Structure formats: C-alpha cells, structure tokens
Amino acid sequence: MPPLGSKPAPAKPAAKPGSDRRGFFYTIFATWFGAAWAAFTVSMAAMTLGTVRFLFPNVVAEPPSTFKAGTPEQYEPGVVVERYKQEYGVWIVRIDNQIFALSTVCTHLGCTPNWLENEQKFKCPCHGSGFYKDGVNFEGPAPRPLERYKISIGDDGQIVVDKSRKFQKELGQWNDPDASITL
Ligand code: FES
Hints:
Elements: H1 19-55, E1 66-68, E2 80-81, H2 85-88, E3 90-95, E4 98-103, E5 114-116, E6 121-123, E7 130-131, E8 137-139, E9 148-153, E10 159-167, E11 181-182
Antiparallel strand pairs: 1-10, 2-3, 3-4, 4-9, 4-11, 5-6, 6-7, 7-8, 9-10
Bound molecules: FE2/S2 (inorganic) cluster.
C-alpha cells in the first residue's frame, strides 16, 4: 500500500496492439542488415587487398638461366663439381675428356639427389633412386637418366652453362654437340 499523501504511481500505458510484432520484425531487419553490411565491408576489404597485391606483385628473384663456370682446365677427370648445385641446380662433371652439366632434379618426382663420393653415385633421398656419375639411372624408381644442360666455351675461354636447353639421353640428345664439351 502506498504511504499516505504520496501520489499513486501512474499506470503503465497499455501496449499498442501489434507493437510487439513490429519490434520483432525490427530486430530481424536490424540483424539482417548488420550481417549484410559486415559481409559487404569484408568483401570490399578483400577487393582492395587484391587490387593492392595486383599493383605490387611479389617479385621472385630467380637465378639467370645462363652462368659461367670457370675454364675447362679447372675440371679434373672423374670429379663431380658441386659448386653450382645450390645456386643453379647443376653438377658439372668431367669424365675423361668430356665435360657436361647435369641437372640436379631427380627424374622420378623431382627431389634433389646427393653425390656420394665414396660410392661414386648420385643417390636420391626421397625414394632411393641411384644414378651413375654420367647421370644414367641404375636403381630405384627413377624411369630415366638425369638431364643435361647446354654447355659451351665462351669467347673469354670460360665454360658457359645454359639451362634453357636440356638434353635427354633416352631421346638420343646426349649426342648433340651442345650437350657436352670435348677437350
Ligand atoms: Fe628421387 Fe623419387 S624423387 S627417387
């Protein structure tokens, strides 16, 4: 009971018929609109990012396909030179009086074999393919020999390896004069 002398609390206005339903629809609309706006904002941000990436593409610095590799006299018979493996993916090998540039890409699935000096062979760590010093496959799943690259002697007397030209033994291309240097 209210204290004596105090005014009676004003009666709450009765809810208008249908206002609950309007509130419900308003909430639904506001939620939907918010979600749509968020999706729009995200897609616009993604588009802007895409444009920026297009304007400033990643530049991949690849080594040039042609490189110089010293003079023929620097290569001893029977030696596999690994100096150019890391940077160019090439072994330079001299067998007797022939020098050639071997690709370091395994012909099975593209791993990089290792030269095992003690065993005198290239051995792929992935599935065990083995290649003789001349690049011919002899064990494991590799279906064909390693590829060779074009090799020549430049005007300055230095060996030039050109990786843009490959030679495959199984196609008879190792006989091409550009596939090796004969001293
Ligand atoms: Fe070299 Fe499979 S990638 S053996």
